[in-house]
Amino acid sequence: MARKLLLEHENIPGIATFDVYRKNGGYASVEKAIKTMTPDEVTEEVKKSGLRGRGGAGFPAGMKWSFLDRKSTKPRYLVCNADESEPGTFKDRYLMEKIPHLLIEGMITSSYALGANTSYIYVRGEYMYVIRILEKAIEEAYAAGFLGNNILGSGYSLDMYVQPGGGAYICGEETALLESLEGKRGNPRLKPPFPAIAGLYASPTVVNNVETIAAVVPIVNNGGEEYAKIGIGKSTGTKLISAGGHINNPGVYEIELGLPVEEFIYSKEYCGGIWKGRKLKAVVAGGSSVPILPAGLILKTAKGEPRLMSYESLSEGGFVTGTMLGSGGFIVLDETACIVHHLYTFARFYHHESCGQCSPCREGTGWMEKVIHRIEHGHGHMRDIDLLVDVAKKIEGNTICPLGDAAAWPVASAIRHFREEFEYHIKYPEKVKNPKHFEIEPFVSERVAALV
Amino acid sequence: MAKVTIDGIEVEVADGTTILNAARQIGGNVVPPAMCYYTSLKDSGGKCRVCLVKVTQGSAKDPRPMPKLVASCRTNVMDGMVVQNLTSPEVLEARKGVVEFLLLNHPLDCPICDQAGECDLQNLAYEHGAAKTRYEEERRTFEKIDIGDKIKLHMTRCILCYRCTYVADQLTDNRVHGILNRGDASEISTYIEKAVDNDFSGNMIDVCPVGALTDKTFRFKSRVWFTKPVDAHRDCPKCSGKVVLWTKGEEILRVSARKDQYGEVKEFICNECRYDHKEMKDWTVEGPRHIDRHSVISQNHYEKIDLLKLKKEVERQLEFQRGNPLPEPNPTLNP
Fold it and tell me: Which domain holds residue A353?
C-alpha cells in the first residue's frame, strides 16, 4: 500500500466535519506554524520540500512564494485556484468534497507564511454543492478560532471567502481568475507584471492550486525534508491522479510520484487494467491539454526505459515522444476508441472555451474544430491534415495565455502519432459517415443495460 | 535611458518605452504593424498579435533570449535589448499566421466597405497576407446594428481589437457598450440598441482599424479616394476643434479627427464638430492634408508634390542603404 498524505483519512465517517477532522490530527500544522515558526520558516520548509504546483505547469511552489513582493505596502492575498475545469481532471473536487478542512487548513498555514490577511477560494461555478461544503467548513473554522481575528492568540488575523466562478474554463488561468475575482470579464492579463507583483486589486498575490495548498499541511507537519524523500528526483511528494476512460476502476488515486505508468494502469490497487479485457491504445496523461501518447510510448520512453508517473519522466523526449504530467487527469483509451472523434471533442471544448481576446486562439480554435469535424464526418481532404498541423503551429506560443498552447498540443500530437487514422477517415468516407464511438460493439452504459 | 537594437539599428529611448514605440522612433520598415494598440488609450494592445517580435537578447545584464515571440506593443525595452522584426523568418511566419486568422471570419467586402482605402487590415493583408484563403467553412456573420444614432456597427467586419471599448471607458463617462459572449462568438454590443449617447462617442469610428464602426452621415456617400482631405479648425468649447474635412467640391462629406502616420488620433474631437458642422463657412481651412504617398487616397494628386522634399527623402533613404547611420527624419514629410 502506497503512502498517503492527502487522502489518508478519506474513508473516516464524518471527516468533513470539524470535530472528526480535529480528532484525526487536523489543524496541527496551523498550531505548529503559528506557535513555533516564523512565516519565513514555513516558506523555507515548502522550498525544501521541492513541492511543485499541481495545477498543470509544475512550477515550484516555494519559488513562487518567494517571488511575492514583500516590500510592497499593499495588502497581500492568497488565492486558491479551485476552478478545475480541465476535461479529465476531477481531483480537486474530490478533495474538497471529502476533506474540505484539509484545504482550509492549508490555506491558513499558507496565508500565514505569505503574510496574507485575506484569502479567497475561487471555486468553479458548477461545483455549487462543493461551495456549500466549503462555506460550512469555513464557518466551523471561524467558530473554533482558527479563522478570524487573533488566531490562537498569536495576533495573526485571517479572513477567508469562497467565490463561485461564472462558469468559464479560462478563469482557471491565474490572471483571468484574478480578473474574474475582481468582478470583471475573465480575460487573461498580459504578463508581466506577474501576480506576485501586481495581482488581485493590483496587490501582491499568490495563486495556487487546491492540491498544492493541501500539500502544505503534511509539509509543515512532517518537515520539508521528510516530504522531499517521497517521490523521485525533482518530482517530490504524492500526487492525486484522476483516472478515467476505459479502465476497470476509474477514480481519484493518490500515488507517490515515480510510480511506473504500467503499474498504475494495470495494478488492482489503481486503475485495474483496461475494461472488458481489451488492449490499451492511447493515454492522455495529464488532462485534455497535454499531448496524447500511444500505448507503446506511454509505457516505455523512446529509449526503452519504463515510463514513470513523474514530471520529468513523462516529459522525456519533449513533445515528439513525450507528454506532461499536467493536472493529473489520466484518460485511458482502449483499442476501440476513435482518435479523430476523441480529438474532435477536445477541439470543440477549446473552441467553446476560448475567451476571444487574442486573434490566434479566437479564430484558430474554431477553425481546427471545423476541420476536424469535417474529417470525422468523411468530408475531409488529404491536405487538411497538414493544414491542421500548420494551424496548430501558428497558434502555439503566439497567444496571451496558455489556452492557445493547450488547444494546439492535442491536435499536433494526435496527428503525429495517429496520422493513419486521419488518413483512413479521409480515404474511406463511407465507413465513417455515421461515426460511432466504439466500432467493435455499440456502447451501452451499464445503467441503461440494466433498465433494458 | 535604454539602448535597444531593432533589426540591427540602434536607438536610445527613455526607460519604460515599449519596443513598438522604440521602433517608431526609428521609423520606416522596422516598425511592427499594430491593429489593437493605441498610444493614447491606456491598457490597449497585446490582443491582435500582429506586432509579435523576437527578442534575441533580453538585456545587457541578462542576455538570454525570450522563449516566445512577444507582443512589442506591451513589452518594455531593457538596456541592451536586441530585437528582430523583419529580419526574423519566425516573426514573419507568425505574422502571416495572425493575418490569416484575422481574415478568416472577415467578410472581405472591401468593395462596399466605407473604410476601404484607409483600412489598417487592408494594408496589413496587402503586406503580409496570403493571396488565397485555406478556409472552406462558412464565415461567422452578425446582424448590423445601430449603436448610437450616428454610428453603425458591422460586427461581421470586427477584429475585436477592443479599442472602441477603451475609448468609451477612458474618454466618455458612462460606458454603455462592451464585449458580449466569448470566443469567436464574442461581439461588441450595447446590449440595448442605440444606447451610445455621448459627446465623444464619435471617436470610436476613428479608432476602429477596420470598417466595423462607420459614420452614418458618411455611409455610402463616396469612396474615400474620391474626396479631398483638408486640414481645418474651428473654435470649439469642448474639444481642440482640429479636424480633417473630407470634401467633394464645396460639399463636406465627412469630418474626422487628424490621424498621424500610424493611424492614431492625438487630439480627439467632439460629436458636434464631427456631425453638425458640414458647411464650409463653419471652418477655417488650413490647407491640404498630407496623406502618405503610398495610400490610394493620394492617388488623385490633390496635394502638390514638393519634388525637392521628395529628393531629400530619397537621398536620406539611400544614405541608410549604404550602411550609414540614419540621418534625422525629414519633419516636413511626416507631420
Answer: 339-432
